[in-house]
Structures are given as structure tokens and as C-alpha cells.
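Reopening: C-alpha cells for the uridine-5'-diphosphate complex, inputs below.
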Amino acid sequence: MRVVPNAAAAQLTRDRVALLGTQVDRVPRDAIDAWITAFIESGQPHQVVTANLDFIAVARKRPPFAKVIAEAALVVCDGKPLQWAARLQGSPIPARVTGMDLVLHAAKLSAARGYRLFLLGAAPGVAERAALELLKLFPSCEIAGTYSPPKGEFSPAENARMVEMVRAARTDALFVALGAPKQDEWIKAHLEELQVPLCAGIGGVFNFLAGETRRAPVWMQQAGFEWAFRLTQEPSRLWRRYLINDLPIFFELFMGQLANRSAGTTPRPVAAAPLDTEVLAALELMDRPRSGIVQATTPLRRFGAQRVRARRRSLGSAGRIRRPVLVRAALRSPSRVS
Ligand code: UDP
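Re-run output (same inputs, fresh job):
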């Protein structure tokens, strides 16, 4: 059953801060529901972007991606460093709103109001398992469909098939997990054909929901170290992104903001809202070990374990050996293994 958008939704206005040329919306946590409701109830297609430092790095080198972000209906702040930079600039962003936040809030609203959600992307079977997890967290949530497309560049026939599938599912929200910039550029290219009121690229969210990859502990997310946790999970894929692409942007962003700060910019006040109680409960449930789901062992840990086993074999069972330096430094774990 549909409800008339509430007064808060009707009064939403964008309030943005420019970070190295990328405009990011200052969205308070307690406005997430209102934005989702407003987009869905409008019936018109909208694109939401979940921006982080990497988005800024890619946008600077790739004008079509910069255009996607500039023309999005909403650009939420998915990365802690963007929040730090905005604060230094004097326009603090009240909350980090991640892809996971968008999906969980949409699932909660779906359970309450019957909004339909479509999950598109990730490896075969992952979107489907993510949908099952959402149904465990919000049992009345409406899943309009799931689809994991083939890897690599999509052929025109595959694009047409996906658009048709989503249209036929008559979904209210479409979450796309193809990694950035692919997911966001795909949404932009098909937004008018899809005619879905809320389309958002959400990166690795289905993997987290399905238990394929573990999300960083809350304290790491809050301290701005989620990237480091993800790096230990998928080092071969992510080292280039974080260390080569994003680190220089981090320094450029912060040097610029520090200069502004010393020029005397005073931060505007910012209201911080607590996490939504239902979403908080869902996050806590997801944090617990889940039966039936094999939590992926990190490649770095596997690599460390193999090295330790190999050295143990060469030293004999009585030998006490040290963990390889690389693994010890990365995991910050005790230095002796018996
Ligand atoms: N992915 C995909 N097809 C592709 C590239 C990526 O389905 O061609 C999926 C991948 O399996 C993962 C998701 O996109 O589930 C998010 O990728 P990534 O981790 O790069 O996103 P991030 O969260 O880092 O933005």
C-alpha cells in the first residue's frame, strides 16, 4: 500500500559542498527515509551516487563519470575522508551515508510501505543471497527481482535484456553492484529507459549482505579505516585503487582544506542524528556470525598461513618461527607463532 509522501519529503532541498570539483550533498542521517520516499513517490527516474575518495579520483580522469556525478539527483557521502575534508572546509557533512545505509533504509521502507526492490549485479548467485538476507532482516520487504549479469563489458543485447528485465519487474528502487564507475555510468545510460524512481550504484553491498566479504568493524568504519580493512580482504585488487589512485587525492584534498582553514573559515554548525533504530538492529544482526554462510578467509591471512605452514615444514614441528614480516605488519598480530 502506498502512502502520501510526508511533509519532510516535500520540503527536501539539496545542500552541497564542493570537494575538488565534486559536489557532495550534506544529507543528515534522519533525512535518508525522506529522500528515498520522495524519489519513489515522485514516480520519476532519479539517480543516487554513493561518493567516496575513489569517485573523486576517477571523476578527475574520466569526464563522463564526472558528468554522471554532477547530474545525479543526490550524491551521498559514502567515505569518511570526504566528511573530514568537508569539515575542514567549513561545510561539515552531517553523516556518512553508505550504500549499505541506502539499501537497509529502502528495505525497511519496503517492508512498511510495499516498495519493490531490484538487486542487479555481483557474481552469480550473490544478489539472490543478498535478497534472502534482506528478507531475513526485514521479512515483509518486497524483492522485485535479482540478476547477476556476465562479467566484462555488456553487449547491446545484454543491456537490452537487463533493461527489459528491470522494467518488467515494476520495481521502485534498483540497486546496482558493478563497482564504480561501471555501475553509475550504466545507470546513467539507461535511466530514462528503466523508468525506475530510485536507482543507486552501491558497490560491494551485496557481497557484504551475502557474507561473501566481511564488513569492517564499526569502530574502523567510524575512525575512517574501512579502506584498510578492505585492503586486507582483497589486497591484489584494491592496493592500486587505495595506494596509487586515492592517496594523492587524499593529500591534495587535505592540503587544500588546511589552507582554507588557516585562511580563517569557520565551520558551519552541523546536526548529528543517531542511527535509525531498525537499521541499527539490522546492522547488529549482520555483524553476528551467520550460520550457513562461510565467511571468506582473507587472501592475506591465507597467504600468511601458507607461508607459516611452509616454514614450519622446513623447520620441523619443534621449531618456533616468526611470521613473515609482511603478514605481521599487515595484520598487526602477535609476532610469534609456535
Ligand atoms: N562487479 C560485477 N561486475 C563487474 C565488476 C564488479 O558484478 O564487471 C561486482 C563485484 O562482484 C562486486 C561489486 O561489483 O560485487 C562491487 O565491486 P567493488 O568492490 O569494486 O565496489 P566498491 O564497493 O569497492 O565500490
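The longest strand covers residues 116-121. Residues 235-262 form the longest helix (28 residues). Marking as resolved unless the reporter disagrees.
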